């Protein structure tokens, strides 16, 4: 018999590591670091259509001392690299970096002496997001994957060692699967089967008959 069976409903049970990680991932404030075209997509997630506020992240911080997540959106030039590093150094721990777009991730098509060939030459990167530019949905997906990674972070060196020895790895499950209701696929299949049965029995006239197979262009031409 476990402790949870002795406690009344409403008592929250969790280990400290999970609780700390949950508070961290649920209140990440991004540092504004838009450098090129990708920044427009990054700004879009702040609007009502994509609504990054759902994740407690609506406050894009203009001061690095109040930010945890640096979204590097756009190409980083050699001239900008020391500025980027300085801003990163001013962010308090724990902090995370998301390289948004191919330019930030690897220099992209700007294979020249002026552009840093990947922001990981300047700061450690936690999440790479491909695309040119990545759509706002892709940025949200990368943020959700980063949340999953944060939830799995050990809170001290001993826990880190234990995790390393146990061989645990963060599963990178697509957000569409991770956040879908558990039995979504089965429910949809059952609904379709029930609708087909009702159609066959004619018990629900609102469903109508099944659409006939679409005509091929040759049949249309012949007036058949
Ligand atoms: S990845 Fe594409 S959209 Fe993003 S900064 Fe580079 S060129 Fe612009």
Describe the model:
The chain is an alpha/beta fold and 224 residues long. It has two domains: 14-171, Rossmann fold, CATH 3.40.50; 173-205. It has ten helices and four strands; from the N terminus they run H-H-E-H-E-H-E-H-E-H-H-H-H-H. A four-stranded parallel sheet has the order 1-2-3-4. Helix 2 (16-25) runs antiparallel to helix 6. The longest helix has 18 residues, at 184-201. Iron/sulfur cluster binds next to helix 5. Iron/sulfur cluster binds at residues 36-38, 74-75, 101-103, 108, 132-133. It comes from Saccharopolyspora spinosa. Pfam families: Oxidored_q6. One of its GO terms (biological process) is electron transport coupled proton transport. Residues 213-224 have a biased composition (Basic and acidic residues). It is found in: Cell membrane.
**Average of pLDDT:** 81
Distance between the termini: 73 Å
Rg (C-alpha, Å): 25 Å
Q: Outline, from the CA principal axes?
A: globular
Q: Say what the CATH topology of the largest domain is.
A: Rossmann fold
Number of strands: 4
What is the CATH class of the largest domain? Alpha Beta
If helices are DSSP runs of H or I spanning 4 or more residues, what is the number of helices? 10
The fraction of residues assigned to DSSP E strands is: 5-15%
Element-level helix/strand string:
HHEHEHEHEHHHHH
Structure ligands: iron/sulfur cluster
Summed up, the domain count is 2
**Chain oligomer state:** single chain
**Share of helix, binned:** 40-55%
Structural class: alpha/beta
CATH architecture of the largest domain: 3-Layer(aba) Sandwich
Strand order of the largest sheet: 1-2-3-4
Low confidence ranges:
none
Largest sheet, in brief, is: 4 strands, parallel
């Amino acid at each position: 018999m476990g402790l949870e069976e002795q406690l009344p409903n409403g008592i929250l049970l969790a280990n400290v590591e999970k609780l700390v990680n949950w508070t961290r991932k649920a209140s990440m404030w991004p540092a504004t670091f838009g450098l090129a075209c990708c920044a427009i997509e990054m700004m879009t997630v702040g609007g009502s259509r994509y609504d990054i506020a759902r994740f407690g992240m609506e406050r894009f911080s203009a001061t690095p001392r109040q930010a945890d997540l640096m979204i590097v959106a756009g190409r980083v030039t050699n001239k900008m690299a020391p500025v980027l590093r300085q801003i990163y150094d001013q962010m308090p721990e724990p902090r995370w970096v998301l390289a948004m777009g191919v330019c930030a991730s690897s220099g992209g098509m700007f294979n020249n002496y002026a552009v840093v060939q990947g922001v990981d030459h300047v700061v450690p990167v936690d999440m790479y997001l491909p695309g040119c530019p990545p759509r706002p949905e892709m940025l949200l997906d990368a943020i959700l994957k980063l949340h999953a990674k944060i939830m799995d972070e050990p809170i001290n060196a001993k826990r880190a060692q234990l995790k390393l020895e146990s061989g645990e790895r963060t599963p990178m499950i697509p957000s569409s699967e991770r956040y879908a209701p558990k039995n979504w696929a089965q429910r949809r299949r059952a609904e379709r089967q029930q609708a087909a049965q009702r159609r066959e029995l004619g018990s629900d006239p609102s469903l109508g008959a099944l659409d006939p197979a679409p005509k091929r262009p040759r049949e249309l031409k012949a007036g058949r």
